[in-house]
Amino acid sequence: MQNFLNLCKSAIGEEYVLLDEDQQAPYLQDWRQRARGNALAVLRPADTEQVAQLVKLCATFKIPIVAQGGNTGLVLGSIPDQSGTAVILSLQRLNKIRHIDIANSTATVDAGCLLQQIQIEVDKVDMLFPLSLASEGSCTIGGNLSTNAGGTAVLRYGNARELCLGLEVVTANGEIWNGLRGLRKDNTGYDLRDLFIGAEGTLGIITGAVLKLFPKPSNFATGLISIDSIQHAVDLLSLAKQLCHANLTSFELINHLSLELVHKHFPQYQRIFAKASPFYLLLELSGFGTEEQNTQQIENLISTAMEADLIVDAAIANSISQANNCWALRESISSAQAKEGKNIKHDISLPISAIADFVKDTNICIENAFPGSRMVTFGHLGDGNLHFNVSPPTQSEHKDFLAHQAEINRIVHDKTHQYGGSISAEHGIGALKKQELTRYKSPVELQLMRAIKSAFDPDNIMNPGKIL
Amino acid sequence: MQNFLNLCKSAIGEEYVLLDEDQQAPYLQDWRQRARGNALAVLRPADTEQVAQLVKLCATFKIPIVAQGGNTGLVLGSIPDQSGTAVILSLQRLNKIRHIDIANSTATVDAGCLLQQIQIEVDKVDMLFPLSLASEGSCTIGGNLSTNAGGTAVLRYGNARELCLGLEVVTANGEIWNGLRGLRKDNTGYDLRDLFIGAEGTLGIITGAVLKLFPKPSNFATGLISIDSIQHAVDLLSLAKQLCHANLTSFELINHLSLELVHKHFPQYQRIFAKASPFYLLLELSGFGTEEQNTQQIENLISTAMEADLIVDAAIANSISQANNCWALRESISSAQAKEGKNIKHDISLPISAIADFVKDTNICIENAFPGSRMVTFGHLGDGNLHFNVSPPTQSEHKDFLAHQAEINRIVHDKTHQYGGSISAEHGIGALKKQELTRYKSPVELQLMRAIKSAFDPDNIMNPGKIL
């Protein structure tokens, strides 16, 4: 083992092989403070060549490798187990934007670039990289790709997978695959790119990527709408797609309790509607023409929906600060729920046509099993993704309620499966949902996944114990 | 062997096991009449269950299987070799549209549905399935997915891969994987869907799919533009993306010779510009508002481009028949070139920023090696895909020229590779480009592809001799 560590030190420099407990601490702790792993060492290579050298060493010594970006994952995918036998390979020092090609609408970046860093650099050349999520200030693009991150603009621009044209990957035996192609069409063999994307570091380590860029919108129109049922929200989504087509970039659901928790714990944000409603929607249209045209489009949508009796009330932001207030209400839900106390979270997706029935049905099941449970239902309705969280009844002890987490997960995930949905819409599987996966995936699908894993990583050194 | 055939007959009915040479003929001949294979039998199962039964029989008897849709492929991917040891498994009888889900914007279809059939059924519910290509009246969606088909709307809507949410696949051991999920977000393990898409039937047989639908545009604005260089065309593309963003659905390049061949062989089509230009562009904007708004948008683009000296002349179609005339000019290029005589075709893609230099450089190389060669350069410039075809010099014999096919391919493909491009943008590899693949792919990429093939199809019975 000492020999292995010495070889690592020669490969990347002694200061980048972290052995000290304090130095290692931030790499070992998961972001939600639910688990902490142990590591033989934290390795911080400088570039792709060094990543390859380290992986070769690990392959030789059969040392498990946990690749890590910003360590902001929510499913315990980027920390090792507690055995202390694995190394963490941090990509943070691979943080260069290699090239922005304006005519090709692409950016070639190191895997360790922060998502926000990419957004900012691309913005400087008047373009847009549309991936956007709460942790964008600390997550890395390599992590975003390894988990196929989603976020608030999937409705219009797709997941991380759809925003990536090419990859550079270090394979499990330490070879470098240069697939950094900036091509919109390339039918030359199997789609390795999309196999590494979403594989959570279990098949290889993403070290670089070619990302798709888009024209930067010139303005945004933001509206908050109150609505009396999810079915009406789904009908409004169809209408919004018809009337606003590609300009519709966000369509977010907020249930009444979600909004009330925000107002309770963040009184600084302005209340929009005097009258309560069971659900609210946050809509955003990206405009490429004048601000007036964009406002007209959202006004037209709202008046058409009013006439069709789809919506109860609506408010259009008249200023950037009003728009920011709407977004703050949406983005503070998780924090507000956390301030209210511990709760049980689900990251699910459903066919949009099934969402209304799913919510009704599942709410009844939870109410029957755990009367008084408070449903904090919100999320990216436009792409079928709900954060379907459950808070304890007001009068009950949080820790007593949390003891029922497995039962509540079972109700929600069984119902999700029954309605044709996914038990992990955008967070991945990691170690947290590994057991769940075997419940909901067919044997044939699991067998195909295992065949890929064995083919790419026969010694099982790439992030072992995750996904499969 | 007789035993195998008898078991096939019991599985799907005697009339659907074609042994007769005349009956087999259309399945054996490739679409471009360049090659003809032989088959033990042509099997025509009725549904997914029957496909699975047949694959199980083939697995037991180690009989190679060539899955076939409309047999319109261009790379000899859907016909067997000449040994006569393989069966052709035709998906044509799996031709039901299973379900259209309007609220979810999806259609679930059998693999043997004709592309056009899907377009028409979806149109009836006022939605759009945007995949569109020349053979849409005879190709099947299973073939489109197996080859990750492209076509004229990739710029806006993506390839077949990006238009598919879920698959049903019969694996190499005859099991059915039901991955017919209609979800926009689903991060539960490896991306099997995108691995089967584009695998040309070498990993399994696609029997069904969930397709993404879009709002149907209410009108189209079509323009033909004359332009003096490819660099200006690329600059115009950037401008068009900025000004028209998602409304820009087609951006097609036509060089002077391409257009002249069309006018020579199809005199029924109207000439648009009196004055010749080295290049022309066909633009289409899909409108979701009024026709007037859409016309304004294309007029605004053209006047902005005129002021920037990017374009020489422009004509906007004033009627559907004028728009159809523009499209007929574009879509008759291949036929016109065929009427002119045999020629050497290339289906390449490049980073858009490299196209102008690539064309200049490659034209010089071909002119030096084969003086007088006539370049028929056209294609989907908006997504970097050129059909970079070479016709013989006017005075030379076509067959003498065709003898140099390998040398000309080498020049074009080496240059494509040098400029970061792909030697097969949208047609795939099949048997035709298998050798080429080993020249341009890195050993590590080939090795990863072979690992997948061995893992999924260890006995090599799924379309052997294709891709790898």
Q: Which features characterize this protein?
A:
homodimer; 468 residues; alpha+beta; Uridine Diphospho-n-acetylenolpyruvylglucosamine Reductase, domain 2; Uridine Diphospho-n-acetylenolpyruvylglucosamine Reductase, domain 3; Alpha-Beta Plaits; 4 domains; seven-stranded antiparallel beta sheet; five-stranded antiparallel beta sheet; 20% strand; globular
Structure description:
2 copies of one chain form a homodimer. With 468 residues, chain A is α+β, with helices and mostly antiparallel strands. Chain A has 4 domains: 2-90, Uridine Diphospho-n-acetylenolpyruvylglucosamine Reductase, domain 2 (2-Layer Sandwich); 97-215, Uridine Diphospho-n-acetylenolpyruvylglucosamine Reductase, domain 3; 219-334, Alpha-Beta Plaits (2-Layer Sandwich), CATH 3.30.70.2190; 341-429 and 436-440, Alpha-Beta Plaits (2-Layer Sandwich). Helix content of chain A is 37%, strand content 20%. The first copy, chain A, contains 17 helices and 18 strands. Chain A has helices spanning 2-12, 21-28, 48-61, 115-124, 141-146, 154-157, 192-196, 230-244, 256-265, 291-307, 320-331, 333-340, 355-369, 398-402, 405-418, 434-440, 443-456; strands at 17-18, 41-43, 65-68, 87-90, 97-101, 106-110, 127-128, 164-171, 176-179, 204-212, 214-215, 219-227, 248-255, 279-287, 313-316, 347-349, 374-380, 385-391. In chain A, the strands form 4 sheets. In chain A, strands 15-12-14-13-17-18-16 form a 7-stranded antiparallel β-sheet, sandwiched between helices. Chain A has a 5-stranded antiparallel β-sheet with strand order 5-6-10-8-9, with helices on both faces. A 4-stranded mixed β-sheet of chain A has the order 1-2-4-3, with helices on both faces. In chain A, a hairpin with a 4-residue loop joins strand 17 (374-380) and strand 18 (385-391). In chain A, helix 1 (2-12) runs antiparallel to helix 3, helix 8 (230-244) packs across helix 10 (291-307) and helix 9 crosses helix 12 (333-340). The relative contact order of chain A is 0.12. The mean pLDDT of chain A is 97. At the A-B interface, strand 9, helix 7, strand 11, helix 8 and helix 17 of A face strand 9, helix 7, strand 11, helix 8 and helix 17 of B.
